From TrEMBL:
Residues bound to substrate: 83, 89, 121, 152
Domain named Lactate/malate dehydrogenase N-terminal: residues: 5-143
Gene for this chain: mdh
Protein name: Malate dehydrogenase
Alphabetical list of Gene3D superfamilies matching this protein: Lactate dehydrogenase/glycoside hydrolase, family 4, C-terminal, NAD(P)-binding Rossmann-like Domain
Keyword annotations of the record: NAD, Oxidoreductase, Tricarboxylic acid cycle
Family matches, as HAMAP family: Malate_dehydrog_3 (MF_00487)
Similarity comment text for this entry: Belongs to the LDH/MDH superfamily. MDH type 3 family.
InterPro entries cross-referenced by the UniProt entry: L-lactate/malate_DH, Lactate/malate_DH_C, Lactate/malate_DH_N, Lactate_DH/Glyco_Ohase_4_C, Malate_DH_type3, NAD(P)-bd_dom_sf
Organism this protein belongs to: Peiella sedimenti
Length: 320
């Protein structure tokens, strides 16, 4: 059987990391696409040479022409600019919306059958715009944010409690901004919902509150440390989990930015919710029960997403 073809649109920090993981795990042949000449070719060749060390038979190629992504099974989009210290994700709209237009048109022309995972920020607005610009089916265009935010939540819980990350299941919903919604009642340590884990002495309520706050600001914490860009290892791993669920029809339930039509009382936008990803793309949205406080937090987060979508429509009236 032919190997899958994975197109990475954007060969920067996340794109290069994605290519490395795809090659090491032999997920498929990789096309690294970027407007920067030499960068995708250089990273592609570097990783291709590494395949002879770790012993995987996959092909890697750098490209500056969309024709090279033809027939891709999966496209992972990181094209655009990341934030620098002092910037919010929303400050990126001006540049990244134009990038989404070019990328959307390129994918529509050359890889219209692909499952598309957007990572470019501000995530919920960019994946919305990418779907519009590409015209691809909504169930085949998703955004990566929730897997990363939930991984941060889980890691902080593991670090505090000493419990293996493997036995912590954490969920964040809503938009990928500082008002994202870490779902405390639905997240578990060794099967115990977090409020019960507090009662059982795994951590204090104050520790939990601090972890929720740190999770919300997790992206900014890394930006402040790196100074020259944003996180890339954990974002890349998160998108790979989504790509694998599609390519291998794993049917994992992962928090992703997906098009909602009525779920959680929301419609006509992309927002982070638990979604079952299989060979057809988004096959189901899982609806958690939400109490009044969770509903209010979700509504606030969704308002931020709607504000970003409005800003996109103002910048590019073709989206209105
Ligand atoms: P970076 O290392 O700058 O790579 C971006 C790449 O995009 C560069 O190589 C550019 O040359 C390339 N590029 C720019 N314009 C185009 C274009 N029109 N077509 C093709 N390529 C282009 O950034 P990065 O890899 O660190 O981050 C990429 C994006 O992911 C940024 O927007 C980040 O804000 C975002 N990001 C999102 C998350 C989420 O959880 C959603 C996490 C981390 C980063």
């Amino acid at each position: 059987m032919a190997r899958a073809k994975i197109a990475l649109i954007g060969a920067g920090m996340i794109g290069g990391t994605l290519a490395h993981i795809c090659a090491r795990e032999a997920l498929g042949d990789v096309i690294l696409f970027d407007i920067a000449e030499g960068t995708p070719q250089g990273k592609g060749l570097d990783i291709a040479e590494a395949t002879a060390v770790f012993g995987q038979d996959v092909a890697l190629k750098g490209a500056n022409d969309y024709a090279d992504i033809a027939g891709a099974d999966v496209c992972i989009v990181t094209a655009g600019v990341p934030r620098k210290p002092g910037m919010s994700r929303d400050d990126l709209i001006g540049i990244n919306l134009k990038v989404m237009k070019a990328v959307g048109e390129g994918i529509a022309k050359h890889a219209p059958e692909a499952f598309v995972i957007c990572i470019t920020n501000p995530l919920d607005a960019m994946v919305w715009a990418l779907q519009k610009f590409s015209g691809l089916p909504k169930e085949k265009v998703v955004g990566m944010a929730g897997v990363l935010d939930s991984a941060r939540f889980a890691y902080f819980l593991a670090e505090k409690t000493g419990v293996s990350v493997q036995d912590i299941h954490a969920w964040t919903l809503g938009g990928h901004g500082d008002d994202m919604v870490p779902m405390v009642r639905h997240s578990t340590i060794g099967g115990l919902p977090l409020p019960d884990a507090v009662k059982a002495g795994f951590l204090s309520q104050a520790d939990l509150d601090a972890i929720v706050e740190r999770t919300r600001k997790g992206g900014g914490e890394i930006v402040a440390l790196l100074k020259t860009g944003s996180a890339f290892y954990a974002p890349a791993e998160s998108a790979i989990a989504m790509a694998k669920s599609y390519l291998l029809d794993q049917k994992r339930v992962l928090p992703c930015a997906v098009w909602v039509s009525g779920e959680y009382g929301l419609s006509d936008l992309y927002v982070g919710v638990p979604a079952l990803i299989g060979a057809s793309g988004v096959e189901k949205v899982v609806e958690f029960t939400t109490d009044e406080s969770e509903k209010a937090m979700l509504a606030k987060s969704v308002d931020s997403v709607k504000g970003l979508i409005e800003a996109c429509k103002q910048q590019d009236p073709s989206l209105a």
